[in-house]
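R.M. (postdoc): so does anyone remember the format we settled on? I'll just put the structure tokens first.
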């Protein structure tokens, strides 16, 4: 039986510190047989937010990453570029080739304010929304 090649998806946001990394990690954990996920930011923050790493660990996903620019992926043939914030959708690079672009905006947990528990609750909420939404959308865009 011939094994199908994995599809490649680039999750693009502004800072590449929270949402796009959570999406990358969730897809690589939950859909690893069908998809290979990457992430980048139109204006990278230079770090992955520790609370994003923490809330991923809470659901059993170990993720190490670095904040990257889309230009680091020039020449990669992505089947899909998935923008996860409005700013990234507006600034989406034009070199994406034949791949499709899909947009769904998630709230930015990096700007959350409040107590430590309130901020973590926002990170968890965004993580859970990403986990519930993105796999369904990937399957809808590319019916296997």
């Amino acid at each position: 039986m011939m094994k199908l090649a994995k599809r490649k998806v680039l999750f693009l946001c502004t800072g590449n510190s929270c949402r796009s990394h959570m999406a990358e990690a969730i897809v690589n954990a939950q859909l690893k047989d069908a998809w290979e996920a990457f992430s980048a930011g139109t204006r990278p923050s230079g770090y992955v937010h520790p609370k994003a790493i923490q809330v991923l660990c809470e659901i059993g996903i170990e993720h190490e990453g670095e904040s990257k620019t889309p230009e680091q992926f020039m020449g990669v043939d992505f089947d899909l570029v998935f923008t996860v914030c409005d700013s990234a959708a507006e600034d989406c690079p034009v070199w994406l080739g034949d791949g499709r672009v899909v947009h769904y905006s998630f709230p930015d947990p990096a700007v959350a304010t409040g107590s430590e528990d309130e901020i973590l609750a926002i990170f968890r909420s965004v993580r859970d929304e990403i986990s519930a939404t993105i796999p369904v959308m990937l399957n809808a865009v590319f019916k296997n």
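R.M.: ...and that's the designed sequence above, right after the tokens. Also worth knowing: DSSP finds four helices and four strands in the chain. The longest helix spans residues 116-141.
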